[in-house]
Amino acid sequence: MLAVQATSLSPSDPLQGLTIGEHPDPQPRDGWVVVTPKVTSLNHHDLWSLRGVGLSADQLPRILGCDAAGLDPDGNEVVVHPIVTSTGWQGPEPLDPRRTLLSEGVDGTFAERLLVPASNLVPKPADLPWEVAAVAPVAWLTAYRMLFTQAGVRPGDLVLVQGSGGGVNSAAIQLASAAGIRVFATSRDAARRDRALALGAERVFEAGARLPEKVDAVIDNVGAATWSHSINVLRPGGTLVTCGATSGDAPTRAELTKVFFRELRVQGSTAGTREELTDLLRFMAHHRIEPVIDTVLPLSQARTGFARLLAGEAFGKIVFTH
Ligand SMILES: NC(=O)c1ccc[n+]([C@@H]2O[C@H](COP(=O)([O-])OP(=O)(O)OC[C@H]3O[C@@H](n4cnc5c(N)ncnc54)[C@H](OP(=O)(O)O)[C@@H]3O)[C@@H](O)[C@H]2O)c1
């Protein structure tokens, strides 16, 4: 079958190990089912994998991709929850210390057929378009958990989203705005700031700009480049939710004095639970949310999408049709 794979790893040149070609079909496994993906979507995570973050040379070749919506063996429309928990795990999936993610410990979604635990399948609401369902499991689920579970923001609260064009960040702007939460957003680029306004941000700012008021929560996955700003803009008792470190994980200052003196909360977040994915899909269908889709490509042309994401050119999600 056709598959998009990591065949070697390079921290400095991630596209070097990207191979699009034939891969053996998945072998049957007890409790696991074969899903036929219809639409999948690209995440920054796939670039991290090619750089060797979360993936090691002894795991290659590995099929990439964490997001998928498709058909189960009975022809039901399903969305795939991307976290594979260890046998017998009962709690929230992101808290399983022995969990893995599709495309890390097991093959991912960028293939004609995908083997996943049957328990990872969530029904796709019938009226939810395939492209919308396919962006939900990683970027949108991550944004959903960050906002509503980890930050616990309510309608009328004010949130700052650091960065505008990314998959998680554009999702956070759209989700928060649909839920009646006020959104400030930053971007390094003027055109992207304008697009954030169109997505529902109340006001937009250059990266690092002084804000006219303190915020209740910050959604941050940029990391080192935005850390101090994220701490500084929080009201006393506010919450910084971090799910990534695109610009590096070692900020110049830890800002510990501000964290304790203003009683700030720093909350990590990773993906989301299967239950949250079900809730998110219902939320998206109910509000008829149209995620920003940057590019739609056939799976065979996935390299173009990877290059676009690597160059930081994408605004919204890059999706692959199968
Ligand atoms: N923990 C989890 O479960 C989880 C889930 C999803 C993603 N993540 C992580 O979150 C990060 C974002 O993922 P994504 O898929 O949304 O990535 P993406 O689409 O590549 O988005 C990158 C974002 O970073 C912003 N950014 C601002 N300053 C930056 C800087 N100095 N350098 C680079 N980017 C900067 C960009 O905003 P502007 O271009 O508008 O400035 C853009 O919004 C990644 O590190 C990813 O690994 C973690």
TrEMBL record:
SUPFAM superfamilies: GroES-like, NAD(P)-binding Rossmann-fold domains. Residues 13-320 form the Enoyl reductase (ER) domain. Signal peptide: none annotated. Residues 1-29 are annotated as: Disordered. InterPro entries: ADH-like_C, ADH-like_N, ER, GroES-like_sf, NAD(P)-bd_dom_sf, Zinc_ADH-like. It comes from the Bacteria. Residues 1-13 have a biased composition (Polar residues). This is NADPH:quinone reductase-like Zn-dependent oxidoreductase. It comes from Brooklawnia cerclae.
